[in-house]
Amino acid sequence: MLFKNILTFRVAGDLPFTFEELEKALATKRARPCTAQETSHHGFVAPIGKGDDAPLVHIVNNDSALIRVQVDSLLIPESVVKEAVKTKVTEIEETQSRKVKKREKDQIKDEIIQSYLTRAFPLKSSTYLIIDKATGLIYCNTPTAKRAEDMLSLIREVVGSLPVRPLRTKLEPAISMTEWMKSKKTPDDFFLLGDAQLSDLDSGGGLLRAKKQDLGDDTLLSLIEAGRHATELRIAYKDQLAMSINNDVALKSISYESVFEEKATADGGDDADSLFNSNLSLMILTLREMMPKLLTHLGGEDLPASAA
């Protein structure tokens, strides 16, 4: 279980529940198929193992927990709904000689969706997150802020309170990343790879993407001198992993190097469950080691008052 994308959140203060309490809370909202009146349902499912006896909170290294959120949904193509609404509205306007207003259109749309639910195709999708009690960080395995917020809201719904906020730095990460490009130097243990995204920090415009290039190239540096900043860089950490980091401290397109994989395999062996746990444990330990260094080199973490 290796995360390919990570959005990180900081817990404000101490975690307001134990993992045992969390297990009981998650059990009150298990994943299930949609009812006849639903287009989607969010719930929790065991990260590893099957059946009602499989834990919903998978504990790693005694102080971290893996959680899996499953979305059950019914696929109703938007184009089909749109065409059906259009046909119904046209029919009303022609037969009743009146204009159909927005509120009535919305009602028609809801009725059409309900009528299609029994014929809709069921889908399942899962997203994982890690609660690392040792660092007070939560790692969501998604590049999408909304999906991460949905997962956290679902946990908050069942436990009552989960005070978190997206990870922040005291300075915009783009300032430090731009300096790395200008100086052609990176902090210890980090290495620049050949991908970058340059844009204007104020307007967000003037976007330029460099792929597999020398980031010290005069053309790129001239753009920086003209005012553009590195709003995304692809970097490597030691010989463990490579990733793209952006101005929101989001880690994307993470790839794990052979040294990492070899260690995980050596620790986990051939058994599938053991290898799952070995990968997960090594990933968490690597993040614990890497994130404080990365945040320091990006200007330091801007901690909430209760976590400072």
TrEMBL record:
InterPro entries: RdgC. One of its GO terms (molecular function) is double-stranded DNA binding. It comes from the Bacteria. Its main location: cytoplasm. Keywords: Cytoplasm, DNA recombination. It is found in: Cytoplasm, Nucleoid. One of its GO terms (biological process) is DNA recombination. GO terms for cellular component: bacterial nucleoid. Pfam families: RdgC. NCBIfam families: PRK00321.1-5. Belongs to the RdgC family. This is Recombination-associated protein RdgC. It comes from Pseudomonas fluorescens.
